[in-house]
Structure formats: C-alpha cells, structure tokens
UniProtKB/TrEMBL annotation:
Residues making up the signal peptide according to the UniProt record: 1-24
Keyword terms, alphabetized: Glycoprotein, Hydrolase, Protease, Signal
Any GO MF annotation of the entry: serine-type exopeptidase activity
Gene Ontology process terms (BP): proteolysis
Organism this protein belongs to: Cucurbita moschata (Winter crookneck squash)
Name of this chain's protein: Lysosomal Pro-X carboxypeptidase-like
Record-linked InterPro entries: AB_hydrolase_fold, Peptidase_S28, Ser_carbopepase_S28_SKS
Amino acid sequence: MDSILSQSIVLPLLLLLVSSYASAHIPRLGLQRRASRNKPQQASTLDGLATFYYKQPLDHFNYQPQSYDTFDQRYVINFKHWQGVNLNAPIIVGFGSEGDVEDDISFLDFPIRLASRYKAMLVYLEHRFYGKSVPFGSIEKAMKNASVRGYLNSAQALADYAEMLLHIKKMFASQTSPTIVMGASYGGMLASWFRLKYPHIALGALASSAPILYFDNITPQDGYYSIVSKSFKETSQTCYETIRRSWAEVDRIANNKPEGLMILSKRFKTCEKLNGSDELKYYLDHVLTSAAQYNNPHEKPVRGICAAIDEAARKNSDVIEQVVAGVVAFMGERDCYDVFESGHPDNPIDPFTWQEYSEIVMPIGISGKDKDSMFPTAPFDFNKFKKDCKALYGVSPNPHWITTFYGGQDLKLILHRFGSNIIFSNGLKDPYSSGGVLHNISESIVAIPTAEGSHCLDLQEGREDDPEWLISQRKAEMDIIDAWISKYYADLLQSTQTLGAH
C-alpha cells in the first residue's frame, strides 16, 4: 500500500546511525521545562477550559480522494476574560508546535496576560500530528504510513490554523475581532509565517525565540554551538576548559578494550550499558546545550553545572568525575541516567524527526572554524543528513523549501516593503538567537533582543524575582500590541462610518 521501510529494516538502521558522531546532533526547538521539573503536577491543565475538536481536512492543497479525509484537530478556549459576542473583543491565539497543546497552556503565561488586558477570548490551537490531533488516532500508524506522514508540514499546519480561526470567529460571531497570534520557538516561526501568509486573519504576530534565519546557510552553522561555548566560558574559564578536554578523555577510556565502555557506563550511571562513546557524547551534548538554551536568570543552569564541575576540581577529581558532577547538578540525583532521555536522535515515529528531515532543515554544526568552541569538530554534513533521511523515510530532504515558501534571504530588503505587525523577541543567551531576527526591519516589524534572556523566556510565567529588563521586555511587547489594536479599532470605525455614509 505504501512505500515505508518496514520496522524490521528501520531499527537496525537506527543502531548504525546513532553510532556516529560525525555530524553534530541538532538541538531540539521547543519550550523545554527543565526549570520546572520539580514543580508539582496538576491533575489536568485543561480544568476550567473548554475543549473542542474541528474536522480538519488531511490535505488543504489537493483534490485527490485522500485529500478529503479528515481528522479531529483539538483546540482549547479560555473564556475567563472574554467580554462576549459582538463587542469586537480581541482574540489571542497561542500556536501549538511540536508537542501536546496542554504543554503550551501550562507554561505560556503571556497570552493569559493579554487576554486579561483586552477582555479577550484566548484560544490554543494544537498542531497536526501532535497531542490528540493525530490522523487515524495513532501516531505510530500515521508515521509508518509514507503517504500520510507527507501531510505533516508547516504549510498544512498554517492552513489548519487559518481554517480553525475562521471557524471560531464565525461560531462566536466575532468576524471583526482583531486576532493576535503568538508562539514560542517553532511555534514562533509559525506565528511570523502566518502573519505573512494570512494577513487577513491575523492582525499581528509575536514570535518568541523563532530562528527563522537558521535555514539555507543564511546563518553560519557554528552559530548555535558558539553561543553555548561562550556561555560556559563567560561563566567559568576552568569549567569551560574541563568540558573542552572531556571529549578526548571519553574516547580514550572507551577505546580501552574490552572494559572501557563498561567503565564509562558505571561512572556516568547510565541506565543501559553504552554501545559506544558516541551515545555518551550525544547525552553530554544534550545536557550542555539544554543548559545554555534555557539559561534563565532565575535558575542559571550553566552556573549550576560549572559550580559543580569546579567544586569537583578543587577536590582533585579527574576530568570524568568533574563532568559527572556537572551532569548530576543539572539532571538531579538519580539511580541511573538515560542517555536517550531527550528522545532517540533518529526515531522514525517521532513527528518532529520527520519535520527536521523533510523541510525544517537547520544546518547546525561545529565546523572547526570557531577556535573557542568547547565541542569536538562535527560539521553539518548534508550528504550524510540526506543519506540518513533516505534510510529512515525513503525520501530526500528539501533544504531550500522554507526560504522558497516563506522567505529568509535578504529578509530586511524584502519584508519592509510588504510585511507588518510582527515582533521578534530573542534572548541573546539562547543559542537559537543566532538564527533569529535581532534588528528592526521596519517600523512595525520589530526586534526585541535581551542580552540576558533565554529561550522563550518572555512568554513564560512571570515571577516576583523577574529582573527589570524582563519586565521591560514584556511591557514593550504589550505596548506594541496596544498600538496595533488601537489602530485596528480606529480603522474599523472609519470603515463603518464610510459604509454608513453610502
């Protein structure tokens, strides 16, 4: 029926793929909740909210029989602040990305602030193929079907959001309500692209930590890892040097046959015996990049790792013992550590793995040109990337499609002519800010960078100990959205008066 590689073929291929660290693993986008891993879990993030399902076409752009198949796509509405029908109250929309919509509801606080400020309806849209919005009801079934998984892409997702928003506005008689869309990370990219593609639906967009320029070699491949290294070096020179030396030490021990891998497994307390040093290096890469990406001013995870490493060094521990101390400081004390806790790097059932291998092709690597890098050289190798993609899915990636469909090359030259009402916010401690929009493009396409900010911090829950710069950043975003909405209401009134005069 379809051309998918059978599971019996894919799994052995995975073992081969993970055995090589020839190219750097691409750090995941998304709103990681490392800082809140110890927070008590509530019974349900949807308590008090209204959950709906929309019959969504599988394919918005073709008219083949399969295109008319539908799936139930989930969206959630918070009516708490909404002042009701026919009052043109704004609609605030949180775009789902590569996860369950409940995650966004739990950890994105800024949309709630806007809803309260404007007496607005607050809507959360779940991305197709995630959470409960999965064709055929099973992600395994959907992702194993080569024909069906082809419908998982950003253009289809944006068309989903367009249909759902028009449906919601019609259902609640709010056709003239201004709509503000926003998202974090990949969701932020979707928000900015939605404003460009569907300006008749979204009045404006807030794109937080959206690396829309990390495509098609617009951004140097070293950008991400350079910021990670810089964060550690600025925090502690000795910690940085320890990490820099550790990779060769891991290899040295691993090459001590036959017991080398067993020694590393015991010292790092891995849940399963390591099959190769690259599995451990993948895990350490994940720990270090996560700490840098989510290096918020409250928990300061990079400082925590370096404090532990430097303390171990003062006790004359060896390099491995120092790095183990850093891992424990970040991950917490555990009976064992799963090197694939963040997900297998080449899991064919994971929907975002498919997206990364098809169109979200971010050439992130360590070319060796950055002499201050604390990571071993691991350049992005598109030929290997393409080979891995074909092994997993039987198709080749399209590395140029994102810039072809949404733009990116000469962004400032082009967007200032026709684009408007987009905020790009970035924390410069976030490694993904290297692929973000950091300078104003026009009067209404603005950048709000913060020197000490981390990934998607501005959209998260406010705290009493928030630094003044973070409070000011959120206020600046509010002020810009205020101006968009005020102008919209003035234009709406003028339009109504003009129609009435005729």
